[in-house]
Amino acid sequence: MSDNHLYEYAILRIVPKVEREEFVNVGVIVFCKKADFLEVRIQLNRDRINAFSHELDLDEVEKNLEAIRKVGHGECKESAIAQMEKPERFRWLTAVRSSSLQTSRPHVGLTKDLAQQLIELEKEYLS
Fold this sequence. Notes:
InterPro entries: DUF3037 (IPR021398). This is DUF3037 domain-containing protein. This protein is of the alpha+beta class. The chain has one domain (about 5-125). About 35% of the residues lie in helices and about 25% in strands. It is built from four helices and five strands, in the order βββαααββα. Strands 1, 2, 3, 4 and 5 form a five-stranded antiparallel sheet that branches. Helix 2 (about 60-75) runs antiparallel to helix 3 (about 85-95). The longest helix is centred in the middle third of the chain and has 16 residues, at about 60-75. It is globular and about 50 Å long. The mean pLDDT is about 95.
């Protein structure tokens, strides 16, 4: 059991029309404090989003998703949030929002291999 990592994950979602509460999964965030692991993966499926609505500017959505990825990875030097420690970044990324870009509530799991678990979550939620 000591080989297992307790991790948290959340699913990034595009909500084309917030009032309808329909969404398309577009990313996965995986965090493990003990392993100092925070990874954000994005897969934007434009056709799937357009099936819900043509009103979103998907180029702008893509820019916002890239900014989230950079914040998650601590790459966005001009962002104070990107400079925070990984636990604080994960909490900020998964905070409840009422915009067209949201995350699921964080969920927990156990895994021996965080990188492989990330791949499995991508397959399950983004394919």
